[in-house]
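Protocol step 4 of 5: obtain the predicted structure for the target chain.
Materials: sequence only (see below). No template structures provided, no constraints applied. The aim of this step is simply to have a reference model before the mutagenesis design in step 5. Sequence pasted as it appears in the construct record:
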Amino acid sequence: MAEQARPMGGGTESLSRQDRLLCVLVEKFQPVWREIEKADVFRRRGLGSRDELLVPQNVMIGLVMLRGLLAEAGQGVLPWLELAARSTTNPALRRQFKRWMNALTDYFNGRRALGGADLAHLARGLMITHPRADLTADTLAGELLSYARPEPSAATRQQRIDLVSNAVLRPAAVTVADTFLADVPPLLASGFQRREVQQQVTEILRTSGRPPLVLSGPAGVGKSQLAAAVVEDFAPEKVIWVSNAASRFAVSEAYARAAQALGLTTPDPGNLEESARSLMRALRRSDFDWWIVLDDVDDPAHLVGFWPGGARGRTLWLTRRRGTDLEGEGRQIVTVEGFSRREGQRYLQGRLGPAVEAGEMVSHTFDEVDGLVRDLGGTPLALALAASVLHENRYTCANYRRLLADQLDGVDGLFADQTAEGYERPLVAAWAISLDRADQRDPAGLASWAALLIAVLNPAGVQAKIMRTDVVRRFLAAKGQRREAVVSIDDLTRTTRALESYTLISCTRYDAGTESKIREVHMHPLTARMTRHHMGASAVTEAVVVAADAVMELWGAVENDPRRNLDLRGNAIWLDGLRAEALASSDGVHPILIRLGWSLGEMGRPHRAARYFERLADRIAPMLGSGHPDVQDVQYACGVWHCREGKIARSIRELTALRDATSGGELDAERRVIRTRVELATSQGWSGQVHTARRELAQLIDYAEHALPPDDQLTLDVRCGHAVWTGRAGYHVAAADLLTEVLKRQRQILGDDHISTLKTRLELAIWTDQSP
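Step 4 output (structure tokens):
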């Protein structure tokens, strides 16, 4: 899923390298640009008309370069106005500044590269102005050098102006990680345009402390895009965006994540409702501006008590529902419809106009544009799908109208398990046309199956790595026509391009030197629902299992990548909610459900892990029976996390009962027996029975060595546990000696970098230090 960087076409997912450099500079050093603006440099230099010029970005960068150059020469850190004056009055600096302006102009027009010395001056000037503990000037210069070679750009002048307006000149804001406490809003679509309803919403929201504002409208009319644009305009300090607010559990789970991000504590952190109430109390008395956006609200009754009020906050609900049940508590309702005739026409001309002007599409492309907007009901998503087909196939609006009319006749046959009732029929037809065209691209027939895998994963975004896993590539190969064991990366890339070309997905990318690689894949929730209904229940179930296998393929044994593992947990929760019966049935429990619970605990939330495993045990025990290995795995996890959250007596009771109900025999059964006895001894030790724990673990060593293969890791873990509790019993020298022997075997068998080896080294350091 990698491809060469493409020219900018209006969306940030396809920026040229020059534009990405600009975005990097803005994101990392926005205070610098705000400082220059406040110095009134532009007015002094006659550059006040910024809406029509790209010059200010060059002047800003040039002034930073000049500050870096003069600081290197030992002249100190000069004010911006003085730097601007010297750039015009000092002959040598004037020539240098003019050279920089020419170089930057050529660079941003894609004609020549920036020099390493110039970028070094830029990096030095940035670091002098805005020092950062995590970055040096040399490191930054190396990072900027990766953007030095320009790329041709097909961006129009207006698109470049918009980029400057939206990026360089936007208000200062904190980083995404600091701003968004739950989910992240969707990316603004390529060709996004302001609408009349957006102005209406903006005016309502300018009044602080109002009750929730409800955006009501059918699927596909752009409610989420509208809300994302409004949030971007207001730039609040904190945003709690909930992508799936269809149930109270989903909202409370997102609120619990937001509460943790704010560092709030509750008596029982595993209680989602209590965490949500703590968040509401904190927001009511907050000293910062906050927003809550609940997307896809299904029933307002689910959200009772879930908006805090307060003078510093605003709350938006996005819903497809209409009627009086949305009213009450002073809520204001704004109905969001499709594009008006004029808005739809402007949208299509904005998307396709450059291709018509360049001669790539015929001059009479828009002859029946009003009729097409009317045929599609003005639905933004349908118009986006239509625009992609028009562009990719060089159709006119008249061509597409005939194609749409033919497709409308067969709309009810598109969904395997139901009719198209409940969906806007023109939207379904437009989606079907796009999917059919993508499926015809080489490799034929893969696009619909790749789309299904994306459709069953987290709508907040699918990591490209998931789509490149071996299990996904084998699955797609089995569905393809080439009879390969594994789909090649090239075929996967072509399939992804086809889906993106027809607006069935959007991709975020990052620069990887000579190419632009896909970081995440996004699919509109409505597109995902239509894709799942089209492929049918059995195909969705199969895809959910494959997706769960793919997530497990990426999920390491150690929680050492918080951001990645947060995404993986999000996908696990989503998959379970989408097809719970596919992951837990009378046939057993998918490993992803077990890994999800352990991940919650290992990233510092033992209360959440304990509550999760309690619910999972109640769910699967009636299906599988108390003696099933999966049930025992969950009961074991309950005992572990109850101990780690401080409920040690309960942990001892649970682990004792599990030990008594578990018998050895096969290797896996022996492992369950041994690990249960290890954790039971550990819980006993933490309850104060230190010598009992030490004695039990000493007896368990002989049992493990007879029951398990030689040098098995679990045997080493038993030995390590025995050594640790020996130290806690007061025998520090003996503990250090035992740990030395364990560490020697771990290094030979597991290696120096294995997590168990590292833990043993830590324990050895502790008990060696305690030894006389």
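Step 4 remarks: The chain has a mean pLDDT of 83. The chain has 35 helices and eleven strands.
Proceed to step 5.
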